[in-house]
Amino acid sequence: MGDPKKIRKKHSPPSHPWQRARIDAEKIIVKEFGVKNKKEIWKMEATLRSFTGQAKKLITAATKQALLEKQNLIKRLQKYGFVGAEATIDQILGLTLKDVMSRRLQTIVLKKGLAATVKQARQMITHKHVIVGDKKISSPSYLVSLEEEATVAFATSSGFFKEDHPERVKKSQPKK
Predict the structure, then answer these.
(1) CA-to-CA distance for 55 and 61, rounded, in angstroms?
(2) pLDDT tens digit string along 45-57?
(3) Distance (Å, whole) CA 172 – CA 113
(4) Which residue has the higher pLDDT, 163 or 137?
(5) Whole-number pLDDT of residue 9
């Protein structure tokens, strides 16, 4: 059998602990996207670094395999809505952390109006009140693809599924 694969960190902390500009930027992101701690920001930065690192390698390459990898990278980023249909590698290098953070399940739940605040959205997800497709997702940092975005809803087993739940966000009535 053997030992299970060693679990490694999916992020790297900042190289210097006290940089005012970075700390201020992280505070804004924490407030806007409702992350629990800075580690979640660092994980999303690592995801972004992965995309841009691949793009940097593929810019200079001109082999048949490199062209295939460029297409696959662009398709994957189009799936999440990070780049458009006629995207180039240069546009991938222009992605920002806010682009990645806006595709998290926690943010999508808030945008769809299922929750009143980002903290409520986070709590609903961690308590398994939200489904994506047919699966209950309990990770607020789950990256939602464009095709999955339409299937984000309350679980039928959840109390929030009922329209009269007291914590459920009320849809405003259209004015006559």
Answers:
(1) 10
(2) 999 999 999 999 9
(3) 11
(4) 137
(5) 85
Report yes or no: 143 and 127 within 8 Å, Cβ to Cβ. Answer: no
Q: Which helix (H) or strand (E) holds 153?
A: strand 152-154
- β-sheet with 135-136: strand ranges across: 135-136, 130-132, 152-154
Mean pLDDT of the 9-37 span? 93
Letter for the amino acid at 31? K
Which helix H or strand E contains 43, and what residues bound it?
Answer: helix 38-60
Q: Which domains does the chain have, with CATH numbers?
A: 20-101 (no CATH), 105-161 (3.10.290.10)
Dist CA 168 CA 89 (whole Å): 42
- Judged by phi (left if over 0) then psi (alpha if -120 to 50, else beta), residue 99 lies in alpha
Q: How far, in Å, CA of 92 to CA of 103, rounded?
A: 15
Place of tokens 């109006």: 113
Question: Are β-strands 130-132 and 152-154 bridged in parallel, bridged antiparallel, or unpaired?
Answer: antiparallel
175 pLDDT more than 90 = no
**Burial state string for 58-67 with b = 16 or more CB within 10 A and e = fewer than 16:** beeeeeeeee
Rounded to a whole number of angstroms, the distance between the first and last alpha carbons of the chain is 69
